[in-house]
Amino acid sequence: MTTEQIEVLFYSAIEEKAIYKKLKDISEDKIYNWRKNRGSKPTIGDMLNVLYQLDKITITQS
């Protein structure tokens, strides 16, 4: 996946209501700030972490 594809998938995934309840170590405030582009932007690591926890991506060894 490209960085752009990860970003698109991430921002569409965090639009779900109460998504923070499905995520470990991610607060409601952090999700709100990411949605509203407040504070620091999520890193690629943050995006991958959220997508992995939501089972939107899988990590495999080739």
What's the helix and strand layout?
Elements: H1 3-13, H2 28-35, H3 44-53
Helix pairs in contact: 1-3
Protein name: XRE family transcriptional regulator
Organism: Flavobacterium taihuense
Please describe the structure with a list of short key phrases separated by commas or semicolons.
single chain, 62 residues, mainly alpha
Can you give a write-up of this model?
The protein contains three helices and no strands. It has 62 residues and is mainly alpha-helical. The longest helix has 11 residues, at 3-13. It comes from Flavobacterium taihuense. This is XRE family transcriptional regulator.
DSSP strand tally: 0
Rg from Cα: 11 Å
Into which percentage range does the β-strand content fall? under 5%
Q: Tell me about the biggest sheet?
A: none
Order of helices and strands: HHH
The secondary structure category is mainly alpha
Protein name: XRE family transcriptional regulator
Quick rundown:
The chain has 62 residues and is mostly helical. It has three helices and no strands. This is XRE family transcriptional regulator.
